[in-house]
Structure formats: structure tokens, C-alpha cells
Amino acid sequence: MKKSLMIVFFAFASFGVQAQNLQQVTENGNSTTKNLYVGVSEATSISDGAVPQKSNLAGKMKFLGMPDEFTLGMDANQPTIYRSGVNTGSYPFNNYDNLILQTGVQNRDVVFVTGSTPSIKMTITGVGNVGIGTTTPTEKLSVNGKIRAHEIKVETLNWPDYVFAKDYQLPTLQETEKHIKENGHLSGIPSAEEVKANGIDLGEMNAKLLQKIEELTLYLIEIKKDVETQNQKHSKEMEYLKSKLK
Asked: Are 32 and 20 in contact (CB under 8 A)?
């Protein structure tokens, strides 16, 4: 009988330890490696399937990274915040000391909601696109609004130094004039309607504008040569006329 009572006592004692809430763990100066559910209603058992209530945290929250801190299975299907542990090679995000926010469900978004009337201000989609002011970004960064920066670097290929190559076919001014009359814009430059509908690629547009500047430079060089040739011809004609008047 005494042995049975002792077993029952230790069973209740073990349950009490397992069922510690956050206040009990903190006040007793204890730590736990078990899942700790904050704000779970008393009528709900403490388990991975428990239904959490609201919880408020005043102070810091510290994430301790451990080997294999993140595991597949239940964690993979739940929104999770954790600090990655030692890289064991068992999971691609286990590079040490990263703070990881994971939606847990494939192709779900991370959204940031602010404002007195809460609304989504920023979205990171499941495929890695970031949207500010838009919830449906189609590029790596989509911004519906103004951007202010000290410097923006755009990388582009096929920079138009080819305009100065000997085999470059420079359009004649007559051809350029004809294209403008027929289309209302320079050759190779998008129309106002196209820009309104599709926007512009900064790198591509800068390259096109530089191409036109380089073509204009070649036109000016040709015009300068023509003017000099005409001036020389007029000088010779004047000299001839002066000689006849003597």
C-alpha cells in the first residue's frame, strides 16, 4: 500500500513539473527544455495541439541556438521564430546564430501590419519577392510609392560603346527624321504609351539614352567636318574672285 502511494505521489509531482507555466518557471529560477506554452487556457492540456490565448511580453525575448533546433515535421508546418544552432548539415538553415522567421507552410507570405487602422505595409512572398505598399510583388523588390536614396547602382550589359566601332551603321538624319514623323519618338526608345503601361528599366534606358548621345556626337562631328569643308571651299572661291577683281 505504501509503495502504491509513493508511486502516485511521484506521478503527481512529475506532472506538476511538466505542467509549469511561465510564471512558475521564472519565479523558481528554473529553466526547461520542454515546449513552454504562454497563455494556454487552464482547461487545455499542454501539448503541440494546444490552443494558445493572448500573451503579453514586457522585456526581452532571447532565442538560444542549439544543434538541430529546427526539425522537420510539426515545426515545418507551423509559423516559427528561432535562433539557428550549430550547423549539423541536417537542415539548410542551421548556420549558427541566425534569427530565422519561417512561415512554416510552403509559399505562404510574411506580412508586416502597422497603422491605427491596421493594414499590410510590407509583404515577403513565399517565392522571396518583397513588396512595400503592395501585397502582390512580381519582382524581387516592388515599391508602390517614392524611393529616396543617396546612391543607386544598376548593373547592365551591352554598354553602347559599339556606336563608336568602325562597322556601326549610323542612321542618317533623313532616316531619323522619317522615323520621328511616322512614330512620334526616336528609334529604339519606347513610346509614352509603352512607358505608362510597363515602366522603364533604368539600366536599359540609360544605355539607350547614351546610345543616342553617342550618335548625336557622331552627327556633330560629321556636321563640323562638312562646315569646315564648306568654309575651305568658300575661302578658295573668295580668293579666286579677289584675284579676278585686281
From this structure: yes
pLDDT at 212 over 90: yes
Nearest-CA neighbor of 207 among 160, 175, 169?
160
Sheet of 119-124: strand order equals: 110-114, 119-124, 130-132, 141-143
Count of H-run helices and E-run strands, the chain: 5, 6
What is the gyration radius of the CA atoms in the chain, in angstroms? 37
CB 141 within 8 A of CB 127: no
Q: In terms of pTM, does the model score above 0.85?
A: no
Distance CA 245, CA 176 (A): 45
- Rounded Cα gap, residues 200 and 192, in angstroms: 11
Kindly list the domain boundaries of the chain, sorted by start residue: 20-61, 160-245
Per-residue cell: 96: 549558427
Which class for 12: exposed (0-12), middle (13-18), buried (19 or more C-beta within 10 A)?
exposed
Pairing relationship of beta strands 141-143 and 130-132 according to DSSP bridges: parallel
Q: What local confidence, expressed as pLDDT, does residue 168 receive? A: 95
DSSP string, 50-74: --B------S-------TT-S-SST
* Cα angle for residues 75, 41, 109 (degrees, 5° grid): 35
Q: What pLDDT sits at residue 238?
A: 86
CA dist 168 and 195 (Å) reads 28
Q: Determine how many CB atoms are found less than 10 A away from the CB of residue 136.
A: 11
Residue 106 zone, left/alpha/beta (φ > 0; ψ -120 to 50; rest): beta
What pLDDT is stored for residue 66 in this prediction?
56
| Residue 51 near residue 44, CB atoms below 8 Å | yes
